[in-house]
Design brief:
A 4-stranded antiparallel β-sheet has the order 1-2-3-4, covered by helices on one side. The two termini are about 40 Å apart. It is built from 6 helices and 4 strands. The protein has about 200 residues and is α+β, with helices and mostly antiparallel strands. The protein folds into 2 domains: about 1-45 and about 135-170, no CATH class; about 50-120, Roll (Nuclear Transport Factor 2, Chain: A), CATH 3.10.450.
Length: about 200
Amino acid sequence: MKQSAKKKWLNKWSRKSHRWGAILILLPAGIVIASGIVLQLKKDVAWVQPPTQNGAQPNLTISFDDVMNSARAAGVGIDTWDDVDRLDVRPDKGVVKVRGKNRWEVQVDASNGKILQTAYRRSDLFEQIHDGTFFSDTAKLWIFLPSGCILFVLWLTGIYLWWLPISAKRANRRNRGEPSTTADSTLARIRDGSTS
């Protein structure tokens, strides 16, 4: 293959793969982008993720049984440890976050067991939507993972397609013998005393 034939083939392949790849991942990429935008705001928007409260004093001085009693008293469906998805202990802030499997979060003061805040936590839901596990593990591996790979190819071909007209203009200038308009060549002409 000649160099020009290789270049033509690469140009054609880049355009086709860019076009069809974009169509192929239209829905999964839209889901990833939209949920990613929401996740970028999770620390700023309480609707997505409740802000972390501060306890009366730092460190954990109550027992986990006391934490469960406080969570149970909040009345959000966290009645036993089986209802708990995870605990987020923040000793520096003096708070324990009890995250229920039902996505409710109870923030308990780590020094006295007082309920500091009860709120619905949506950030975990958006994370599951973002990586595809919300739909199923099969969707994650067979739809969202390949979509990510295709998106990477779109990124590469997009850079190539962006660079293509720039390199073509430079090649045309060289072929016509026109001086380059880059900053380096302009500075060189100024140093040489040429203004044309």
